[in-house]
């Protein structure tokens, strides 16, 4: 009876996913799920996990609240996966405690700034097919990048061909500001729209005046065609 009671009293958070290996590292729990052909993040990761390795799998997305129950998590390795999408609340609940977050060598083209706002972790973003634009530039302003991997954040695509293949920070250091480019593009679009509306108003006014002039001419011609009342009186 004591044995069964002990089993029932053990918290579910201390179990280990069948596809992973759970060990102790310097008195802290490490959950090792590297190269296990995982296509999504396991849902039964122990709540007391401090180190979590999910690298070298086939994970394609980090959904909202994926790690919310892991309040002790300090190191998270998601490198060498096939991650393409990261939800805005992907790291909700663990952002404040994380010390390192590795998202390198995935398929990430863009990442919502909201997903990283509360992070204090040192972040690795290298070797992803980044689309260099204002959104990515704003992300880099907000996060702590691992200095050893900064030069490997390169522009896979960009608004201008000359930036493709270059490290993003090199492009920014050269004075490029993707956010100002977007602002100029918005301003041009607004100018074109306003010019279009102005042109339509002018055309409408011209057509209206011309139509009224034609009506007036027709009315005058009609009056001229009427018999002269004065000649009949004589």
TrEMBL record:
It is a single-pass membrane protein. Keywords: Leucine-rich repeat, Membrane, Repeat, Signal, Transmembrane, Transmembrane helix. Residues 15-51 form the LRRNT domain. It comes from the Eukaryota. InterPro entries: Leu-rich_rpt, Leu-rich_rpt_typical-subtyp, LRR_dom_sf, LRR_TM_domain-containing, LRRNT. The keyword Transmembrane applies. This is Leucine-rich repeat-containing protein 3. The chain crosses the membrane at residues 188-209. The keyword Transferase does not apply. It is found in: Membrane. Residues 1-22 form the signal peptide. SUPFAM superfamilies: L domain-like. GO terms for cellular component: plasma membrane.
